[in-house]
Amino acid sequence: MILKIQYLGTGAAERVPAIFCQCELCQYARIQGGKEIRTQMQTVIDDGKLLIDFPGDSYLHQLQHHIDFNELEYLLLTHWHSDHFYAEDLALRMTGYGQQLDKVLHVYGSAYVKQFYDRAFKLEGRFDESRLVYHTLRAYQEVEIGHYRIYPIPAQHGNFEEDCLIFAIQHQEENKALFYVHDSGIPNTRDLLFLSNKGLIFDLVSLDCTGQGQENSGAAHMSLQQNLILIEKMKTFNLVHDETRYVASHFSHNGGLTYEAMKAMSEVHGIVTSYDGMVIEY
Question: Which InterPro entries does this chain map to (predicted)?
Fold first, then answer.
């Protein structure tokens, strides 16, 4: 069985073109369209088996990419920023808003994210566990979700207190693994060692590349140069193999690079530059 990931959105919070911006890249994207348009980051694994994140652009993604959210059973949340989790839209799955649904949506995220989840339902004045059930993830405590074994790892992001997570996602039947590193700076050495001790070897690594060609994108994100540092660290811990695929995503207009410029820069290092709607098989 070939596994795959589809990038429904590949942009940071402001998107490209940014919602309020007149920089050169944003003006170019408005004119050029196509792969220059980047909506908020969201991915779907194996044709709807697992959805990662639920940003404000989720409804747009559903229409653009013909994703049937009614069939979803598992939603994995990285963190609480609204470009990754817009809980008010998720609350519209409750009875009275959505009709004739026959599946329960299981939502997985940190205890900190649960506060934002609860707030949306409190605003509605009720909860509805016949439609949605929240499962609290804890760092380093693996959990089985459908066909997948998930290893939550603290992200270098947000409050830097395990409020944000990155994920190792292993397909239990196919024994293939994905390392999903959005939004995050370079993971700590101890976290890479944890994954190595679990015997994980990744077939695909999805890399935050908010800073694009910048030398450093700060502690909470990565640039291409920081991606390369992470890849070398992963090789040291035997977390990747010769055929591992690397994909860069989560781009900001502040990175300043068009799709073609980013592609030219990344492919020299064997890293694929993602675009909205792209499907990668592994």
Answer: Metallo-B-lactamas, RibonucZ/Hydroxyglut_hydro
